[in-house]
Amino acid sequence: MKFDFNTMVDRRNTGSMKWDVAEHELPMWVADMDFRTAPGITESIMERAEQGVFGYTVLTDEWYQAYQSWWKERHHFAIERDWLIFCTGVVPAISSIVRKMTTVGENVVAMTPVYNIFFNSILNNGRNVLENRLIYDGSEYQIDFNDLEEKLADPQTTLLILCNPHNPVGKIWDRETLSRIGDLCSAYHVLVLSDEIHCDITEPGWEYTPFASVSENCRRNSITCVAPTKAFNLAGIQTAAVIVPDDHLKYKVNRGLNTDEVAEPNVFAAIAPIAAFNNGGEWLDALREYLWENRRFAEKYIKNEIKGITPVSAKATYLLWLDCRALAGNSAELCSFIRSRSGLYLCDGNEYRNGEGFLRMNLACPRRLLEDGLVRLKNAVKLRDCF
What we know:
Shape: globular
Low-confidence stretches: none
Helix content: 40-55%
Strand order of the largest sheet: 2-10-9-8-7-3-4
Number of strands: 15
Number of domains: 2
CATH superfamily of the largest domain: Type I PLP-dependent aspartate aminotransferase-like (Major domain)
Distance between the termini: 45 Å
CATH architecture of the largest domain: 3-Layer(aba) Sandwich
Largest sheet: 7 strands, mixed
């Protein structure tokens, strides 16, 4: 293997949010990989750091070109330079856009279960969460379009936050589904904010479809948030981009991001995406292979060794969504029990709404850590059966 994903990196006592846990605990919760980033990114950061001067930073032509080239070559979507706006992160962008593009008391639709921070961005800004609850048939999740149209038709609804690909269920929305969402939102004058941060973490051989690439309705009525941070493990660098094809929307988004002071890059936020998108493709392809080997290993282990838990099939993200409804009790109690008895730290499905009976597990770690986590999960479930 050209790239090393098996070496254990000790992240304790480094200020890591993920690893700020007790010594005996194994954190497999937050979406943060335990791999070193692509070598080219580290080299670019170190080369820049050696200059020793860290003044105010502006975006170069290379920053724009890196995003444009990556999306054209990887995702078959031609992004114009003028559509791109820098932001310090996808979450700051979402919160800012909610503030700028909606009014206090209005409804924002979210397809649940979904990334829990969406709710913070909506509720903390005085807007209402309107849940379009995804339907799980025991095999995969689908959108309840009748319910979605009812929610969009409410005159108080002004924004839909789409997760594409979907976290936590790992769903890649197909072009037909995205087109249908776009047509409905256009018909009811509801703006689409698409979070596409997980777009590059897909099963080898599978591609995601950018929402804005699907149709004219989708292009002119959407704002898309993207970043290299999930795919290249750069969350701490605080770098992202917002894609806004419509000039009128772009003006408003740009004003909102600047008013909130989240539109200026630090030194490394400006150069990390360039290194990632220009030089990180081979590393990312190898990473995806490793992640899906991890997924297959985990799914097989759980199927053969752990009764009462069923992994939900996924084509995207490095997150394993676990159906634990066959076990007695609720998922919050189960999550707490597993952590207290085994030290394995997972996410309770209730955090994502419409996730009762499910847990989320992060697979983005060396195989030895994954094996440890699965054994802890097995032993905790066995212990629970004894009570």
